[in-house]
Amino acid sequence: MGLFKEVRKPVIRSVVAGASEISPLRPRFVPKAPPCASACPNGSEIRELMVSIAKAKDYGFTREQAFERVWNRIVERNPFPAVTGRICPHPCESACNRGAKDGPVAFNAIERMIGDFGIAHKLRLPRFAVRPRVEKVAIIGAGPAGLSCAYQLIRRGYAVTVFEALHQPGGMLRYGIPEFRLPREVLNAEIGRILDLGVELKCNCAVGKGISLQQLRRDFAAVFTGIGAHKGIELELPGDDAPNVLSGIGFLKNVLAGQKPDLGDKVVVVGAGGTACDAARLSKRLGADVSLVGLELTAPRSEIERAREEGVRIEYPAVPLQILRQNGHAAGVRFIRVRPQPTADDTSHAVPIAGSEFDLEASSVIVAVRQQPDFRGLETLANGNGWMKIDDWGRTTTDGIFAGGDSAGLGIATGAISQGRIAAEAIEARFQGRALEKPPALAVIPIEKLKLDWYPAAPRHDAQRTSVAGRELGAEVDCGLTEDEVMEEAQRCMSCGMCMDCETCWMYCSNNCFVRLPKGEHCMIKLEICNGCKKCAEACPSGYIEMN
Fold first, then answer.
1. Is residue 309 a contact partner of residue 284, using CB atoms and an 8 Å limit?
2. Neighbours of 293 (CB within 10 A)
3. Residue 217 per-residue DSSP state
4. What value does the mean pLDDT take over residues 36-62?
5. CA 446 → CA 282, 449, 451, 456, distances in Å?
6. Which of 305, 366, 381, 469 is the most buried (most CB within 10 A)?
7. What integer is the mean pLDDT of 203-216?
8. Of the given ranges (5-9, 321-325, 498-502, 524-528), which has the lowest mean pLDDT?
9. DSSP annotation string for 102-129
10. Is 276 in contact with 299 (CB distance < 8 Å)?
11. 391 and 361 in contact (C-beta within 8 Å)?
12. Distance (Å, whole) CA 18 – CA 12
């Protein structure tokens, strides 16, 4: 479509001829996968996006044009950039090669700014140029997986109806993530764009009550289920049936739906994952003194840091032994400290430390250790272990039914969005009688292939935060990056394994084998005059050139 000419694979124009040779090897442009994209569950084209922003002026784009082009590229795979730019734990950044120099590129904050740019400029989600299809698809659940699948299908011309059991769409994005992490106006804007494409949404319609799975299979050509995992699991400890022992997911859902429970002045949160951390921070905003106790801190490090800033006391590793009761209500929790002990299969299990028991007083206890799907009305889809079994394309063991998201195994929203997209591709292939085939994966470039010293030192831009005193119930904590900061941060990308038009190869070649082309088209290699000196490959900072 003419978009992103700057990141296309260059055409290597060459003529092989005899010349005085130092080596029989010749330079070749060999694209490689960057570790950031390989770590992203949705395979976001992070490197290409960063280079496109960083080189906007060189490629003849204004800043605004570059932002819009990048937004359009992101939403090909992810219609929620402003959402994931806020809530994704960004495994891409953990994998970023720049982390070995002066900090990973802040792609998550850049994605957030691009997403906000799309909302502010009322950008529309792209469709494919196709005629309307005759097949209709039912989506069960309006969470990230279901809405992603609906988006990918309707832009391909298929009629889509989404059935949602709750009052509003969003799933765990709306009912499991507090507004101080994800403002509802942001969520509503990105969901609204999907619905504007013509997706039919039926809320307060639980499959198994208002409509049956059998009816959906009869009336629709395919069914996708993205029901999430909204059912909290009890501790199964003495005293855990007290009325003031709440499930983490149930607590979040009720508060985010507008209810304000009376927690009292001392809350103990059992667990240390994302749900537990959100429940602890939300309880703090409701006025309680909060302790979070868990076996292992699995919540994103940034969320743990913010919880500590806000006064949440964190104890780990420890496990609960008993809910202490008084007059029929929970009055505290007894814990014991543990130490991890490795096992023969390279895993570990917790070993209690004798005499390390301790009690924490509590007016309410929130249990957020595990959650699972609620299959009421969909019992035939459960695999016997409380989850749904799917293959790499989202196909279940029942023909014509696809699934994704937390109902197939707990994960992050970015992974659910990916599963919804992939299932949509599989559904279309089924309709068209096409075989499913994934493109071959490029090898991931290791850091040893990069010339870290070539890149100027450039400290990472970290977003500012709202002061702790200003962190009210609905106030967003992270402030994001400015457009100027995004432009600067994108320039920190090292374009691992791909050309970024630095022209280092041209500068180092003593035989003038490299011919500069317009920016975005990279270089042409004249192999007829190359003597195989290897200077270009040795100097290429991004590891794009190889000798073979």
1. no
2. 24
3. H
4. 94
5. 41, 6, 11, 20
6. 366
7. 92
8. 5-9
9. T----HHHHHHHHHHHHHHTTPPPP--S
10. yes
11. no
12. 19
d(CA 408, CA 396): 10
List, in order of start, the domains of the chain with CATH numbers: 1-31+498-548 (3.30.70.20), 35-123+452-487 (1.10.1060.10), 136-230+373-432 (3.50.50.60), 232-369 (3.50.50.60)
Residues 7 and 58: their CA atoms lie apart, in Å, by: 13
Q: Which residues pair with 138 in a beta bridge?
A: 161, 223
d(CA 536, CA 518): 19
Provide the 3-class DSSP secondary structure of residue 547: strand
How far from chain centre, in Å, is Cα 494?
Answer: 22
Coil, helix or strand at residue 201: strand
What DSSP designation does 33 have?
A: B
275 has a pLDDT exceeding 60? yes
What does each C-alpha distance from 450 to 7, 331, 345, 446 come to in angstroms?
19, 58, 34, 8
Cα gap 402→424, rounded to integer Å = 9
The pLDDT value given to residue 345: 63
**Among residues 440, 496, 503, 524, which one has the least CA distance to residue 48?**
496
Which two tokens mark 96? 């970023």
Which residues fall within 8 angstroms of residue 437, CB to CB, at 6 or more apart? Answer: none
149 contacts 175 by C-beta, under 8 angstroms:
no
φ, ψ (nearest 5 deg) of residue 395: -80, 135
The two beta strands, 523-525 and 514-516, are antiparallel
Percentage of the chain surpassing pLDDT 90?
80
Rounded mean pLDDT, 263-276: 96
**Gap between the Cα atoms of 70 and 484, Å rounded:** 16
Side chain identity, residue 318: A
Would you tell me how many other CB atoms lie within 10 Å of the CB of residue 174?
A: 22
> Mapping DSSP to helix (H, G, I), strand (E, B) and coil, where does residue 426 land?
helix
Give the up-direction half-sphere exposure of residue 383: CA atoms within 13 A in the CB hemisphere: 13
